[in-house]
Amino acid sequence: MTVPSSWFGPSSYTLALKLVSFGLPQIEAISFACAQKYGTLQYFTMHREEREKVNWAVTYLEICQKLRIDVAHKKVLVVGVNDGMDIELFNHCQIIGIDPCHQALALARANFPHHEFQIALAESLPLADASVDAYIALRVINCSTVNIKSLIEELQRTLKPNGSFIFSIANGFFDKKIYKVGVFKDGKVNLEYANSLKNELLNLLEGVGTQLTVVEHPIETFIFGCKN
Asked: How does pLDDT run across 127-146, given as a tens digit for each residue?
């Protein structure tokens, strides 16, 4: 699909809205819009380099072990799976990965052919009620196209009672290999936006789960919990 260059606004959300107004179905509009950022080789490379710089995988696993979060041999839903980088840590589980970006899922399928991947939105999951043991959404909340309230409703619907959930919110980004605090909102770096996202997410999760734990990390904040 070809769209006018003037349609590429400061966020994926802006572009998706314009595509919907043009008559494209919502899932296709969001898929196309997200692909402009999250489906590029530049993004895949940058994201991996970021995490390698801060030894992210080791830190994340240490946090899970400290909080006694064990998803081994369970059915795990990974929302916003992208190219599958996050599921490298959970390769021993039964993974269902969803993402609106076709390019990202093509890489995920190639890297992890034994897992299941689907094009889908976090706000409309193609899963039965109470069908997964764990729900993981890392940095998904930072995406401008995501409706957090609808996402939490789908979390509550699909996660089994006593199931675990793990969220993370990016606190900063690397610019030319230099880490900078703040996340993008409406095309500009906003120092307070990550904190407001965290508070909004925590308020919504209080109605879903117990034992909420917040762990601050230099590049992202993790929120863990257990469904009531």
From this structure: 999 999 999 998 888 776 78
**If DSSP codes are grouped into helix, strand and coil, which group holds residue 25?**
coil
Q: 43-227: which CATH topology?
A: Rossmann fold (3.40.50)
Alpha-helical (H) ranges within the chain are: 12-21, 26-38, 41-53, 56-66, 102-111, 148-158, 193-205
The span from the CA of 154 to the CA of 125, in Å, is 7
Strand intervals (E) in 80-182? 94-99, 116-119, 132-138, 159-170, 172-175, 178-181
- Kindly report the pTM of this predicted structure: 0.76
Query: What SS3 class is residue 169?
Result: strand
110 neighbors 97 (Cβ within 8 angstroms): no
Interval 178-190: pLDDT, tens: 445 555 555 555 5
